[in-house]
Specification:
The chain has 415 residues and is α+β, with helices and mostly antiparallel strands. The chain has 13 helices and 16 strands. Helix 3 packs across helix 13, helix 9 runs antiparallel to helix 10 and helix 11 crosses helix 13. The structure holds (2S)-amino(hydroxy)ethanoic acid and manganese (II) ion (2 copies).
C-alpha cells in the first residue's frame, strides 16, 4: 500500500504552473483564470481516480468515494488551492494533493470504507482578493451571510458575487450549507508555516488549538493639499495618523504578550503623489491569539488609540470589522488516534498549536476536525521560498492515509 511520491510531485509541480507571477512565487487568487486552470486539473485527477465529481452552490469542488453505507456521514479531507501574492507552492496545495493521493491509494488497493470519503478543494481560504477568506468552509458551515457576496470587493471594486458569475457560477450559499451531522470528521494536512517542527526535529505536528483570528480594516480620512504651501501645523495628514496607528498596533500587541501577534499587511493611500499631502489611507489589521480575551483586548485598546490619534491629528478614523473567528480546539479523540498511528509508523510527532488560520477552524463548528502539520523549511511561508522536503510530505500523507482508513471503518459493534 505505497504512496506514489512521483504522483504527488507531479501534482505539486503542475499546480505551481497555474500562477499569475511566474518567477516570483505563486499568485493564484480566487475566481481568476489561474484558479480555473488549477480547478480543471484537480477535477481531471478526481475523475481519473474514479471519484464522483461535483461543485456546490459556492464553487466548492468535491470528489467522493462512495462508502458501504452511502447515507452515513462523510469523512471530509482536503484543503485550499488559492494562494497569497508571491506565495509558495505548498500552502494548501500540500493538503489537497495528499487527499488526492490517499483516495488514489484507496482505489488501487481496493480499501473498503464504510463511511463515504469526500475530497474538498477550496479556492478562497486566503481571502487576499476579497479581504475576508476561509469562505468555502464558512459557507459549508452556514456561517456566511448572503450580504458578503456583494459587500466583499477586490481592489478593482469587483464584488465576490460578480467575480463568481464571471467565473461561471451563480452563487447559492444555501445549497452549499451542509446539514448538521452530515460530516463525520474533517482532516486537513497542511505545512506548518512556522519553525517549530524543524527546530524540534519532529516529523509531524498534531494541532490541538488553532488561534483565533480578528481581521479589520481601518480608514483615515484627512485632507489632501499642497505639500509646499500648506503650513506643517495646519494639516490633516492621513498618513501621519496612520503611521502612529500602525506603531500603536505593534506596541499594544507586545503589551498584551502571551504569544499574541498583530500585523498590518495592507496599506493604500491617496492621492499617492509626492507633492500632495495624503488625504486618505486604508490599512488592514490582523490579530491572532490562542486566547479570546487577548484578541478582544487588542481591539478595545486600538479603538481608544484611534480616538486619541483622531483628536490629535484631526483625521477621521474608522475601524471596520471584516472577520472574527474565535480560537478553536481540534478533536482530541482523533489526536490520540494519530499519536498511536504515528508511533506504529515510527514517525516522531509533537502536539502543538497553529498560529495560522485554516479551514479546519471553521469545519470544527460542524464536525470534529483535525490538522496534521508537516515541517516548513526555515519556518518560511507566504514566501516564494516556502518548501517542505518530499520525504516529509510522504510521512504526512502516510499518517493521514492510515488515519482515514481507521476513521472510515465502521466502529465494531456499530452498524
Ligand atoms: O492567514 C492565514 O493564517 C492563512 O494562511 N490563511
Ligand atoms: Mn493555508
Ligand atoms: Mn496561507
Amino acid at each position: 500500500m505505497d504512496i506514489n511520491l512521483n504522483r504527488v510531485k507531479k501534482h505539486i509541480e503542475t499546480l505551481a504552473t497555474f500562477n499569475a507571477t511566474p518567477g516570483n512565487g505563486i499568485t493564484r487568487l480566487s475566481f481568476t483564470v489561474e484558479d480555473r486552470m488549477a480547478r480543471d486539473y484537480i477535477k481531471e485527477e478526481m475523475s481519473q481516480i474514479g471519484l464522483k465529481v461535483w461543485e456546490d452552490g459556492y464553487s466548492n469542488l468535491f470528489g467522493r468515494r462512495e462508502g458501504k453505507d452511502p447515507n452515513s456521514p462523510v469523512i471530509m479531507i482536503g484543503s485550499h488551492y488559492d494562494s497569497v501574492i508571491n506565495g509558495g507552492p505548498l500552502d494548501g496545495v500540500a493538503g489537497l494533493v495528499s487527499a488526492l493521493e490517499i483516495l488514489r491509494v484507496f482505489e488501487e488497493n481496493n480499501i473498503e470504507n464504510y463511511y463515504p470519503i469526500e475530497i474538498v478543494a477550496m479556492n478562497d481560504e486566503e481571502g487576499v482578493r476579497f479581504g475576508t477568506g476561509i469562505s468555502n468552509s464558512r459557507v459549508m458551515a452556514g456561517l456566511m451571510d448572503e450580504k458578503e457576496l456583494d459587500n466583499a470587493k477586490d481592489k478593482d471594486g469587483i464584488s465576490l458575487r460578480k467575480a463568481m458569475e464571471e467565473y461561471g457560477i451563480v452563487p447559492d450559499i444555501n445549497n452549499a450549507k451542509r446539514p448538521k451531522g452530515s460530516i463525520k470528521t474533517f482532516v486537513e494536512l497542511h505545512i506548518e508555516q512556522g519553525p517549530i517542527l524543524e527546530r524540534n526535529k519532529k516529523d509531524i505536528g498534531l494541532v490541538e488549538t488553532i488561534v483565533g483570528l480578528d481581521k479589520y480594516e481601518v480608514t483615515f480620512k484627512g485632507k489632501s493639499g499642497h505639500a509646499g504651501t500648506t503650513p506643517i501645523n495646519n494639516r490633516k495628514d492621513a498618513l501621519i495618523a496612520a503611521s502612529e496607528f500602525i506603531l500603536a498596533v505593534n506596541r499594544i500587541v507586545r503589551g498584551i504578550g502571551d504569544g499574541t501577534v498583530g500585523t498590518v499587511g495592507e496599506l493604500s493611500l491617496s492621492p499617492n503623489a509626492s507633492n500632495v499631502i495624503p488625504g486618505y489611507v486604508k490599512l488592514s489589521v490582523d490579530i491572532r491569539s490562542t486566547k479570546e480575551e487577548n484578541i478582544k483586548g487588542v481591539y478595545k485598546q486600538l479603538l481608544k488609540e484611534g480616538e486619541y490619534i483622531q483628536d490629535k491629528r484631526n483625521v477621521d478614523i474608522e475601524l471596520i470589522h471584516n472577520l472574527y473567528i474565535p480560537p478553536v480546539n481540534m478533536s482530541e479523540e482523533n489526536i490520540v488516534l494519530m499519536e498511536k498511528i504515528s508511533q506504529k509508523l515510527g514517525y516522531s510527532y509533537l502536539r502543538m498549536n497553529s498560529g495560522a488560520g485554516h479551514d479546519a477552524m471553521i469545519m470544527a463548528e460542524v464536525a470534529p476536525s483535525n490538522l496534521i502539520f508537516i515541517p516548513s523549511k526555515d519556518g518560511l511561508s507566504h514566501h516564494p521560498d516556502e518548501w517542505t522536503d518530499y520525504e516529509d510530505i510522504k510521512k504526512g500523507i502516510d499518517l493521514m492515509l492510515h488515519t482515514v482508513i481507521e476513521l472510515s471503518k465502521i466502529k465494531q459493534g456499530k452498524v
